[in-house]
């Protein structure tokens, strides 16, 4: 040990007194600092973020590891070959792999790695101080040690042995670099198919104030332990081969580490599901070939859903019990039916009851032939219990994130589905031809026959969760109680809603106000309270504006609930009576630092207006132009509220920004008029839509536009058919002076 220490001391002195270190440290910190700055400021489009520990630690995790790999490759080579060129190397030549020298090298490089990591963390903390967000969360920064420093320490050991085995300074430098890229860089998943053997790579996930690094931390540690065992075992083996001697002390240590490593490795891989692209494409093709005929066959539809959802956040799992009422709304009897359960779910029990028939369903996909067909207007029922659990090795799904704290699930997506699901089709033309598939199912055309507007469901949803958590869900909370150490919530929207419901569960702070007989709730992370008052004011303002201009608010309450950043893909999303917003995106933005834009105003204005445009009042017929009646109208409301709060000039600056977004994007996809816009062209439905609606309001006046919108809602309510984009244009024509008619048509129908 004394020898190890003396080697360690010489090496450490060499590294820390050398001229290279200050230069590399400064370069590293400069680079990380630039990235941190960019992460906080976020450019002009997005709001400035709070300089929280989680944000800065994530920024380190994103950038530090790759850069550190290069430094470690250099330092391992440098330190290993330094003594070689000195006169001592002949003496050391006989030292085995495990010799004091190499351990000394390894320890000194490990010290260097921790030095770099601590410097990076200190940089993060100084950013927090500079941005005046002093709450330092050490569990966020400890991720840097676990996810970056420790794998780098293992990498250093691996590289030192590589240098030893190759015995040529520059050759080993080259090979070390190559090897490091293959085993440790983000490219490793190209070379190493099994996630277990990618133990030298860093972590690219998310840090959430709700959930920390979640279950990913322990899973990552288990894999590291496996890696450590594996590396020690290979060193030990090469040692025996080279020296032809077995040191029993080391053998015992190796054996123990290999054993724990092996156990951790199997724990890490438990439940691993390898996704093979070819297999997935093949199964999608088979599905389409076998079941596309159901597109034309009459199928019953769900009219009523009674469900209980049992959430187990700490186990990353939940169970759903449900009963569907299924009604044949066609004029023909249904003799065959297709029922599909979602992948990744296990079916505990599923029974279809129709007349005197009780049909047990065992498979994910069941084709049912009734002995007694389901006559027109007759009903059947589906009773099911299904469960879901995810494991870290497969990662979580953004919209099905059942996690320790801050869960969010677009849960209706995972309920059983009736009939053919065209969204499973392969869209890639080449892949389709290769598999002999015809044309992909097309989006409905504007002038196709309209659907009836009676496809909403009656929803009764009971949710229970851990004792310290609160649930927010689609619809209104009608009852809440506690039983056997769990919290129960009963949600029941006062009106029928589309088959689209979601929920969240977290340890929430809670603020409520009654405003003109609507109860407003905001549920949020206890440390994210900065914008609550501002949001509350904006919700009131939006409610008042929408009620007086578009018509009554359809529910008795509105809930805004924050969810963890483990859910990505939206800033906020609106459901009947409930709006979910993701951590850090808008709700927890640093408004005071950013005079340019008020994202809370946008959040309240846009999302709350979806309770008129998209929620359950105006639900357009699913076809081209449909998003014009949801997103474009929400953008319009957002703009009008911005104008109300900050004046016309400020609003015009926002419009200008949307013009820029549209101009920047339009070159990348086929251009289409707003009234035929498809769902994926958000630069048209949101940005160009905002520009056009503001132009329209300047042309015929805000009050006139609102009159048209109010009439549109009335027409939808009374017609029994779903709305299409031209309905709105028709309403505009009826409310405006003929001298504007051509201009109005050009705005919506021109390119
Ligand atoms: Zn929207």
Overall, the morphology is: globular
The structural class is alpha+beta
Count the domains.
Answer: 5
Largest beta-sheet details: 8 strands, mixed
DSSP helical segment count: 20
Spans of at least 5 consecutive residues whose pLDDT stays below 50 are: 89-93
Total DSSP E strands? 20
Rg, Cα atoms, Å:
31 Å
Helix content bin: 40-55%
Portion in strands: 15-25%
The small-molecule ligands in this entry are: zinc ion
Question: What is the terminal separation in angstroms?
Answer: 78 Å
Strand order of the largest sheet: 5-4-7-2-1-11-14-13
Search tags:
5 domains, 20 strands, binds zinc ion, five-stranded mixed beta sheet, Jelly Rolls, eight-stranded mixed beta sheet
Description:
The protein is of the alpha+beta class and 751 residues long. It folds into 5 domains: 2-214, no CATH class; 216-272; 312-420, Jelly Rolls; 463-587, 2-Layer Sandwich (Zincin-like), CATH 3.30.2010.30; 626-749, Neutral Protease, domain 2, CATH 1.10.390. It has 20 helices and 20 strands. It has helices at 2-17, 20-41, 53-85, 89-92, 100-130, 138-166, 169-184, 188-191, 216-243, 248-269, 277-291, 429-434, 532-550, 599-609, 631-646, 648-665, 682-700, 702-719, 725-735, 741-749, and strands at 301-312, 317-327, 334-340, 345-354, 357-360, 365-374, 379-389, 400-401, 407-409, 417-418, 458-466, 470-473, 477-483, 486-491, 503-506, 509-515, 518-524, 557-563, 572-575, 578-582. The strands form 4 sheets. An 8-stranded mixed β-sheet has the order 5-4-7-2-1-11-14-13, with no helix packed on it. A 5-stranded mixed β-sheet has the order 16-17-18-20-19, covered by helices on one side. Helix 9 runs antiparallel to helix 10 (248-269) and helix 14 (599-609) crosses helix 15. The longest helix is centred in the N-terminal third of the chain and has 33 residues, at 53-85. The radius of gyration is 31 Å and the shape is globular. The termini are far apart. The relative contact order is 0.07. Bound molecules: zinc ion.
């Amino acid at each position: 040990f004394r020898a190890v220490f003396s080697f360690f001391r010489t090496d450490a002195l060499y590294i820390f007194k050398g001229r290279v270190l200050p230069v590399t440290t400064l370069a590293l910190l400069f680079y990380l600092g630039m990235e941190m700055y960019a992460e906080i400021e976020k450019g002009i489009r997005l709001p400035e973020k709070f300089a929280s520990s989680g944000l800065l630690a994530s920024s380190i995790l994103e950038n530090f590891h790759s850069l550190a790999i290069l430094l470690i490759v250099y330092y391992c080579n440098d330190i290993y070959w330094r003594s070689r060129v000195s006169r001592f190397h002949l003496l050391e030549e006989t030292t085995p792999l495990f010799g004091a020298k190499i351990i000394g090298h390894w320890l000194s490089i490990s010290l260097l790695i921790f030095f770099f990591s601590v410097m990076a963390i200190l940089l993060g903390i100084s950013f927090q101080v500079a941005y005046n967000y002093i709450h330092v969360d050490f569990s966020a920064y400890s991720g840097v040690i676990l996810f970056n420093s420790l794998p780098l320490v293992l990498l250093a050991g691996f590289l030192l042995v590589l240098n030893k085995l190759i015995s040529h300074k520059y050759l080993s430098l080259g090979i070390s670099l190559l090897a490091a890229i293959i085993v440790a860089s983000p490219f490793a998943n190209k070379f190493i198919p099994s996630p277990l053997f990618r133990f030298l790579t860093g972590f690219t996930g998310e840090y959430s104030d709700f959930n920390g690094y979640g279950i990913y931390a322990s899973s990552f540690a288990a894999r590291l332990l496996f890696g450590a065992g594996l590396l020690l075992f290979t060193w030990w083996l090469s040692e025996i081969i080279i020296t032809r001697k077995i040191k029993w002390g080391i053998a015992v240590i190796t054996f123990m580490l290999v054993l724990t490593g092996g156990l951790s490795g199997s724990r890490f891989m438990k439940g691993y599901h390898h996704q093979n692209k070819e297999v997935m494409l093949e199964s999608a093709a088979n599905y389409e070939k076998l079941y596309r005929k159901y597109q034309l066959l009459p199928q019953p539809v769900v009219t009523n859903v009674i469900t209980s959802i049992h959430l187990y956040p700490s186990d990353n799992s939940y169970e759903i019990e449900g009963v569907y009422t299924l009604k044949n709304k066609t004029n023909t009897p249904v003799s065959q039916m297709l029922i599909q359960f979602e992948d990744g779910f296990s079916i505990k029990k599923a029974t279809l009851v129709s007349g005197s028939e009780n049909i047990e369903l065992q498979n994910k996909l069941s084709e049912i032939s009734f002995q007694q067909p389901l006559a027109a207007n007759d009903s059947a029922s589906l009773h099911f219990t299904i469960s879901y659990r995810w494991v870290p090795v497969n990662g979580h799904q953004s919209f099905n994130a059942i996690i320790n704290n801050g869960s969010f699930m677009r849960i209706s997506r995972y309920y059983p589905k009736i009939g053919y699901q065209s969204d499973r089709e392969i869209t890639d033309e080449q892949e389709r031809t290769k598999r002999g598939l015809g044309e992909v199912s097309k989006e409905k055309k504007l002038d196709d026959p309209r659907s009836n507007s009676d496809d909403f469901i009656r929803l009764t949803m009971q949710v229970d969760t851990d004792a310290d958590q609160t649930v927010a869900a689609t619809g209104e909370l009608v009852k809440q109680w506690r039983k056997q150490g769990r919290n129960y919530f009963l949600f029941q929207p006062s009106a029928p809603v589309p088959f689209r419901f979601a929920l969240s569960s977290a340890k929430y702070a809670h603020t409520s106000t009654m405003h003109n007989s609507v109860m407003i709730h905001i549920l949020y992370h206890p440390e994210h309270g900065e914008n609550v008052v501002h949001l509350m004011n904006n919700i009131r303002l939006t409610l008042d504006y929408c009620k007086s201009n578009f018509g009554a608010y359809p529910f008795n309450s509105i809930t805004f609930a924050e969810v963890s950043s483990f859910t990505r893909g939206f800033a906020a999303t609106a459901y009947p009576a409930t709006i979910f917003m993701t951590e850090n995106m808008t709700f927890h933005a640093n408004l005071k630092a950013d005079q340019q834009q008020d994202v809370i105003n946008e959040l309240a204005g846009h999302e709350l207006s979806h309770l008129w445009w998209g929620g359950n009042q105006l639900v357009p017929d699913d076809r081209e132009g449909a998003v014009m009646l949801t997103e474009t109208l929400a953008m319009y409301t957002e703009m009008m509220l911005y104008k109300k709060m900050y004046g016309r000039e400020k609003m015009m600056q926002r419009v200008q920004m949307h013009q820029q977004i549209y101009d920047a994007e339009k070159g990348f996809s086929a251009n289409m008029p707003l009234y035929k816009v498809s769902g994926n062209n958000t630069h048209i439905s949101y940005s160009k839509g905002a520009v056009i609606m503001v132009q329209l309001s300047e042309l015929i006046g805000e009050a006139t536009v609102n009159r048209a919108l109010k009439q549109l809602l009335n027409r939808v309510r009374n017609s029994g058919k779903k709305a299409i984009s031209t309905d709105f244009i028709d309403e505009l024509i009826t409310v405006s002076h003929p001298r504007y008619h051509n201009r109005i048509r050009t705005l919506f129908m021109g390119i």
